[in-house]
Specification:
By secondary structure, this protein is mostly beta strands. The protein has strands at 21-31, 38-44, 49-54, 66-73, 79-87, 90-97, 108-109.
Length: 110
C-alpha cells in the first residue's frame, strides 16, 4: 500500500519557489452525473458565497466532482490553485498555475 500525504508538507509557489502561500477562494464542483456539464458549483470568497449550475467550467475533474483552492504567494505576484479531481475511481491532488488552469495543464502532482 502506498503511503502518501501522511505527514504535513508545505507547497512551493510554481512561479518563484517560495513556500508562503495564502489560501483564498474555494470552489467545489458537483456534477449531476458522470460527464454532465450541469450540477452545482459553490464558490466561496472572503466575503461571498455563490452557487452556479455550471459544474464544468474550471472544474479540475474532466468527468466527475472537483475542488479548487486559490493560493496567493507572499513572495511574488504568482497565483496557483490546489486542485482535487477524480478519474476512474482515483483521486488526484495537483498544484496548477492559475494562468494554465483553463488548458488544464498540471504542473506538479503529489
Amino acid at each position: 500500500m502506498k503511503e502518501r500525504l501522511t505527514t504535513p508538507e508545505s507547497m512551493a509557489c510554481l512561479h518563484c519557489g517560495g513556500d508562503y502561500l495564502h489560501q483564498g477562494t474555494v470552489e467545489v464542483f458537483w456534477r449531476e452525473q458522470e460527464d454532465s456539464a450541469t450540477g452545482l458549483c459553490a464558490r466561496i470568497t472572503e466575503s461571498t458565497v455563490e452557487l452556479h449550475t455550471n459544474a464544468d467550467t474550471n472544474n479540475p475533474s474532466l468527468r466527475r466532482q472537483g475542488l479548487r483552492i486559490r493560493l496567493k504567494c507572499e513572495n511574488c505576484p504568482g497565483v496557483c490553485w490546489l486542485t482535487v479531481s477524480q478519474h476512474k475511481g482515483c483521486t488526484y491532488v495537483a498544484l496548477v498555475k492559475a494562468t494554465d488552469l483553463e488548458e488544464r495543464e498540471v504542473c506538479v502532482e503529489f
